[in-house]
Every structure is written in structure tokens, then in C-alpha cells.
């Protein structure tokens, strides 16, 4: 009876965890959760367990997902201004428009792959102890919004993470999704 009551009140005992452990809903985890909801990634490792939390999550997603799409569109437009400036610079250097379009797309594709897939994978390799290929896999699965949940940052109990690690990852996710939106715009 006590276990059922505890679960209904949002305490979810798993394995050998004690009831004196800190809540999963600290700022970093909450920020990460909010980012995975509005980006529709949904790893499934951190989720509301009470009826009230679940109902709130539904309404948060109903408003948050469209607002995130608007945000990503705006950031994508700002990045496309950089693309136009690069194109204008190349045009002034005497390049043809077809070549400019190709080079601009290639530049933003290569830069994005480096900034949003390759470099973060090194960071995940160091911080999470994953192999580089596991870091690439996580980065791609996350930014493609597949989000299997087989690899999730900041969840290994034997590792010490700095306090805003998951916040930084959530920001990386938002800007990585904006980069993908830019590629679609291009």
C-alpha cells in the first residue's frame, strides 16, 4: 500500500535507490526534459509519473512544439542571412550562381557536421566514456529526433557530471535542430 501511494505521489523507486536520493527534477534535468519535449525527441528516460504531471506535459507540448518550430525557423533564417552574405561575397568575386549555391550548401553542411556531429562526439566520448562512434550515433539519433533512448547524456551513476551539463546538451540540441532547418531552407 505504501509503495502504491508513493508511486501515485511521484516517487518512483527503481532498483536499490533509497528514498533519500535527490529528485531527478533538478534544473538541469528539467531543462533537458523540456528541450526533448518541444523538440519531439522524447528519450523516455525522464518523464512525468503523476497524472497531473502527464496532463501538464500534454499542454506544454501542445504549445511548446509549435513555438519551438517558430524558434527553429527564426534561427534558421538568421543563419540563412549568413549564407546570403557568403553568397554575395562569392558573387562579387566573380563566381557563377550555380557554383555559389553549391559552395554555400557545402560550406554549411561541412561546418554543421563538424560543429554538431564531430566535435560534440569528442565531448561525449570524454564526458560519457562512450566510443567516438557511439558519440556520433547519439548525436545523429538526437538531431534527427529519433531519440531511441539507448544512449542518453548524464545518466551514468558512476560518473560525475558538472551541474549544467544537460543544459548545455539541450542548447546544443536546439541549435543543432536549427542547423538542420537551415539545410532544409538551403
Automatic annotation (TrEMBL):
Residues making up the signal peptide according to the UniProt record: none
Any one GO biological process: stabilization of membrane potential
GO function terms (MF aspect): outward rectifier potassium channel activity; potassium ion leak channel activity
One Gene Ontology cellular component annotation held by this UniProt entry: plasma membrane
Protein source organism: Copsychus sechellarum
Record's bilayer topology term: Multi-pass membrane protein
Keyword Ion transport included in the entry's annotation: yes
Primary location group: membrane
Domain Potassium channel residue range list: 22-79, 105-185
Transmembrane segments: 51-72, 102-123, 135-153, 165-184
Protein name, as recorded: KCNKG protein
Origin superkingdom: Eukaryota
Cellular localisation: Membrane
Gene name of this polypeptide: Kcnk16_0
UniProt similarity note: Belongs to the two pore domain potassium channel (TC 1.A.1.8) family.
Keywords, ordered alphabetically: Ion channel, Ion transport, Membrane, Potassium, Transmembrane, Transmembrane helix, Transport
